[in-house]
Amino acid sequence: MLKRIAAAVIGLGAVGGIGFLAYAWYPAIAPIPRPAASSFSADAISRGAIVANGGYCAECHTRVDGTPGPELAGDFKMATPFGDIFSSNITPDEQWGIGNWSLAAFKRAMNKGIARDGSQLYPAFPFDHFTKVNDQDVSDLYAYLMTRPAIHLKPRDNTVPFPINIRLIGQGFWKLLFFTPGRYQNDPKHDAQWNRGAYLAEGNEHCGACHTPRNLLGAEKMSKVYDGAVIDGWIAPPLNDHNPTPVVWTEDELFQYLRFGVAPLHGSAAGPMSPVPHRFLSKIPEEDVRAIAHYYADVDKAAQRSGGDQTAIARAMHMSGINLTGPLTQDPDARLYQAACGACHYNSGPNPVLGRPELALNNALWLDEPNNLYQVMLHGITAEEGQDHISMPSFYSGLSDHDMARIAAYLRRTRTTLPPWTDLEKKAASARATLEAPPITASH
């Protein structure tokens, strides 16, 4: 009897193993000679440029550490809990890039996460979002990439350890657990603008890759979509109704932020988010940015939640004034803030002045941790990022960890209604330690 049971278990295991290999293994697609640039229409290339900008391709496929690399030649370092992963070269170089990839091979990579040689791609490449991109957009993106300059550059080797680096097994199981391929399907309950925004946001723009927390295996938690996550020491805040700011992200605020990098009631895009409006979404059709804003205004339930905005603005403006002219100016922390920050963050009217962010309304003070406040203090905001070329200098050298902790504690207790942050000086030191050198930013 035991022998029969053992034989049955072994047999089932063998069948399961064969089934898994059938699921995870893909054949190589034969290489092709590099297509001539003239084989692609000008319209396809132009549309492909829009897709490339919408998907921020150059952001993750261009080296920035050490000596900056050529655009789209890869070697961008992504530090993950599983080791460092370096992005691939997606220029039409035939040895190290995708010059010998056919359109079929490129589509398979985008929609299924499979390289031309049949190997499984790591989900650092967000194929779980790109699977939703339609064939026309993928084809146009291919035309655009194949007409860029070919860069002969080999990205560095990944440092993913054994056995995760056995992609057939590791990535095959990951996909079995977390990946559902398929193109975006319109939701008939919503209008065309909403569906266009959802198609872009969930697919090519892959917003959830940064704004959705991940589980221990690096997959997005589908039960917490758009709940926010930590990215490179910054917090990508929630995009849903869990966003804690006292003034709701309305469709207009979202559009201003995504198109121009500054929302009048929320401040400037900074850190990993900064390139999104400034380098990329500013180059795609305005109606597409409006569609994305329309979609996220629905996701965050802006219409239902914005009734208290005017009260929140009035409170913020009152606190901004009283804390710089009232009795709290005797507080040494208030004086430190006034000396370092008050000149640029003071508002006295009924509404914040554009280019003079009111911190009482800013996400950075309302998040669970002070990451973003500290990162902006240390990095500053360059003239290219700020509104109308207004910059914020880096306080990397001007403020100690103790000073930063005092300002953070002061702002949290006077500009919000939330409990105080803890271990502020320790967290300031930790944020500073992530910077290899003092940043260089433009002066006022």
Automatic annotation (TrEMBL):
Please give the PROSITE patterns that the UniProt record associates with this protein: CYTC (PS51007)
Localization annotation: Cell membrane
Give the record's keywords alphabetically. Answer: Cell membrane, Heme, Iron, Membrane, Metal-binding, Repeat, Signal
Q: Which Pfam families match?
A: Cytochrom_C, Cytochrome_CBB3
Looking at the record, the residues that make up the Cytochrome c domain are: 43-149, 192-300, 328-415
Per its UniProt record, what InterPro entries does this chain match? Cyt_c-like_dom, Cyt_c-like_dom_sf, Cytochrome_c-type_DH, Membr-bd_ADH_cyt_c
- What name has this protein been given in UniProt? Cytochrome c
Organism, by scientific name, is Gluconobacter kondonii
